[in-house]
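Q: My collaborator sent me two sequences in one message, no labels, and asked for predicted structures for both. Can we handle them in order? The first one she listed is below.
A: Yes, handling them in the order given. First sequence, followed by its structure tokens:
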Amino acid sequence: MNKVILIGNLTRDPEAFTTQSGVSRSTFTVAVQRRFANAQGVREADFIPVVAWRQSADFVNRYLTKGSKVAVEGSMQVRSYDAQDGSKRYVTEVIADSVESVGSRGDSQGQARPRDNGPTPPPAPAAGPAMNDFTEVEDDELPF
């Protein structure tokens, strides 16, 4: 079984590509903190390259920027190529099956907002008082 789940922050803005056949691709790097601290008490991070395709790539390219907190689910892939000097090089990367923004609402780095600099919509009004154990919410706040 080859399954990878990562939660971390983008180290830079994603790089968007489109293949000759029109398929979207996005490459980015996720910084993931290690579970344990080193001898000096510092929790180091690993910087993991990720490749997303099609709808996942479109989401990443449109909504995520450097610092965005994401959850990535996918598989590990190792590929090789011959460098210009004739040596064989290996690349290890995660091929994303899904990418989700996991930042909290108050965390501006984690909010999924379009990267274009167009006008932003006004904030949704606060929910009204509870009635019969239900709270009123605006339609645009519903996740479906």
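Q: And the one she listed second?
A: Here it is, processed independently of the first:
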Amino acid sequence: MGSVSDDRSKAPLAVFDLDNTLADTAHRQRFLERRPRDWDGFFSAAPQDPPLAEGIALVKESARECEIVYLTGRPERCRRDTLDWLAAQELPEGRVYMRRDADRRPARFTKLEILRRLARTREIRVLVDDDELVCEGARRAGFTVLRADWAAGSAELKVAQEREGRT
């Protein structure tokens, strides 16, 4: 009989985005409305993000059958704040995949690359993300996707995700 950790390593993965999926970024949109955009301000305000109840409930529910993985476009320099925020929300532990600090490719490329890498050795039960293009690309690649549409949309954030490869 295998140990719990053995069972866990065979469990399917549920992959969750952070910004506007689990964390409400509305209070920090003002940093993206400036020209030039204030990325340091935008990311340094992330620890104050309120949780999005729908996303939080979904992570906890998914953790019953799946191993949780967090896949974010946030840069690596935000790792400590991100881990602290996840812990403060009492979310299940899971590996956190972040963008390299200098990587400016759109999220639909960076996230799909990581999803494909994970899928080589594990079943991915679902990807939950708010970014339309990430969801579309993942669906086309054969992944099951749930679009997180419970946060208020932001045109500035969409431009940041797609054109500037920042989040």
